[in-house]
Amino acid sequence: MRALTVVLALSIACLASPAPAAAQEGHPLKGSWIGKWEKNTIHGADVIIVLNWDGKAITGMINPGTDNIAIKNASLNPDTWTVHLEGDAKDKSGALITYVLDGKIENLAMANRTITGTWKNQKESGALKIGRQ
Amino acid sequence: MKFRVTTGVLFSVVAALLLAAAPTAHHEILAKFDDKKPMSLTGIVTSVDWANPHVHLFMTVRTGNENVNWAIELASPIDLNHSGWTRETVQPGESIKVDGIAARNGSRQVWANTVVTSANGRQVLNVRAAAPPPPLGNRPTPRWPDGQPRLGTLPGVDGYWGYPSSTVLTENNANIPMSEHGLLKNVADAPKVAPMQPWALSLYRMRQQRFLQDDPMFLNCKPPGGVRQYQSAYGLQFVEDRDRKRIFVLIGSGNRNYRIIYLDGRGHAGQVGGDDDNPLYYGRAVGMWEKDTLVVDTRGFNEDFWFTNGGLPHTEQLKLVERFTRENLDTLKYEVTIDDPGAYTRPWSSSWTLRWVADEILPAHLCQDNRP
Q1: Rounded CA gap, B263 and B280, in Å?
Q2: Per-residue pLDDT tens digits for B52-86
Q3: What is the ipTM metric for this complex?
Q4: Which of A119, B65, B191, B249 meets the CB 3.0–4.6 Å disulfide criterion with B259?
Q5: Chain B residues whose beta carbon lies within 8 Å of the beta carbon of residue A110
């Protein structure tokens, strides 16, 4: 029992330790972003966004594997490093809603850069803060 | 002993003169130090840390009623050795005067432009950029028995390739003023360097405006992948393994790594133990000889490093076609076409030469402990 407690404690400690973000010197949006879209009662406050860059367009997914919101419209303004993402989803009643996320990349030079801004759909809105993993 | 920080026009003029002959470094000095913060220190050496990538002197400087510790950063042991400096040149307990520039972050660190011993006024630091050895006539290209040019050494002879004619990558060798580490004199010149996409140009500008201080080769000893290995200060070597139809490129700078060029006709997909989905710092390189030129096609780069001095961005879509031609014993011509539709608007090219450094082994410049 004691050994189990130690293993459990170590496991929790490992999970609690922040993992260093992998270096990413290419397109600043590429990668996995994890954080919060606060006050989201439909899809929960936690959010994961996976983004890619194919040379012409930004593609990606919000909450891959769970809610599966495909990003249908994404843009980056490199003059201001502001980001715009859109994706269609369904609310709890099955009605179509469109998420619109707007934010700005901060700490651009760092691997663990962040995007801070806002999110909204037809029913709710709130603050957005995600960090690159 | 006195601690003195002198400012003013006179000092600025002197500093400018000193900087004109600034010692070399393995990375951009201005990334860490501010040339607008000249500093003069007089004190006692407490320790000499003779190690790559930069030698450090530690000294105490009397400031008011206190002894304050300072770290003095110097060039690499290789450059200091070339200039006649050894680990015994300055000893702990010796009084010295250091003139240099202060760290940007306000820490007690100085990049030394000159170090003078107080006892006899002898200037002990006077590093100059090493010049390539004079060519010994137009010696013919060394060849294997079947007539193919040798890229490496002859049996029993030391040598390596160094002194690249350009240490910065620009399209078609555009003459854009910048430091040997790729720091633009004028950031407005950024669009002239290469045909970058808007995001890449903006990122490149940002890196320039931060004096290249985010360079992962400097910060984390990341490998000089891509073309960077052919523009590095401490050269490279080719080891031709003809039995196994591959060439090892040993890299003198960065983290002392190597690159493999396969000449056995293999393709690109999954050729190294199924790494087709695992992009690499040096990519996957396959080559073939076209008469006297080795043509190398490299793909599969990761995005975890800067592929050029100066921080030109790239993506995993980067493809390089490199052409190596040993024009004579002393000259290696390097031509490269950069094709990265993820970061550039079209393929673009550049070329330069490297010089054979005879009778010397590849300098042992190591960067593997993330030390400054």
Answers
A1: 19
A2: 888 999 999 999 999 999 999 998 888 888 888 88
A3: 0.84
A4: B249
A5: 214
